[in-house]
Amino acid sequence: MINTVNKKRLLLIDDDRDARTFVMLALCKNAVNCECVQAGNVTEAMKLFPKTAPDLIFLDYQMPGLNGLDFLTSLRKQYPESTVPIVFYSAVLTTYIKQAALSLGVQAIIRPGAVATIARLIKEYFG
Length: 127
Description:
Layout: E1 8-13, H1 17-29, E2 34-39, H2 42-52, E3 56-60, H3 68-78, E4 86-89, H4 95-103, E5 108-110, H5 115-126
Parallel strand pairs: 1-2, 1-3, 3-4, 4-5
């Protein structure tokens, strides 16, 4: 039986369905008791954020239309009191993108596919 009382919520924002599946598999492999809410774009994520009250956000940078930095900017503007930890990832990580993400409060920046890093971060934030 799954304990839903202590279940954590993850908001996973990525337009790539395969990437979302990869993170879901990392969650299952590490037996994390969490609910994963998925958003395929920034607009959808901004609608889901207040409804889901996530404990952790995994955020892709590169998406069609608005990107991960746009999400962070909107989040900080609309919810300045939010302290939700954010893991930012992308195959394209320039110095500018990294600095911008960190200045917007990202706690970790990783490359997609970093299984060991994803597992470590999930355990760190979800116990």
